[in-house]
Amino acid sequence: GSADLAPSNKTNMDSRGDFSTEDRSGSNLHFGVREHAMAAITNGMQAHGGLQTYCSTFFV
């Protein structure tokens, strides 16, 4: 997933759809402008097991 930078860092998987409360079959998570929370959530999902996760943002 990506914060609000998916078009810039090319992390959106167009063919996989978006994960939401209405449609849980999607693979793209939209975190908004929350880079720190995005990293924490992604690490937690990976540590829990069963999922291959990634996240991306700009390095400043």
From TrEMBL:
PANTHER family assigned: TRANSKETOLASE, TRANSKETOLASE 1-RELATED
GO biological process: pentose-phosphate shunt
Coiled coil, from the record: none
Record SUPFAM superfamilies: Thiamin diphosphate-binding fold (THDP-binding)
Sequence segments annotated as region (Disordered): 1-27
Pfam families: Transket_pyr (PF02779)
Molecular function per GO: transketolase activity
Compositionally biased spans, kind Basic and acidic residues: 13-25
GO cellular component: cytosol
Name of the protein this chain belongs to: Transketolase
InterPro entries in the record: THDP-binding, Transketolase-like_Pyr-bd, Transketolase_fam
Domain Transketolase-like pyrimidine-binding, first and last residues per copy: 1-59
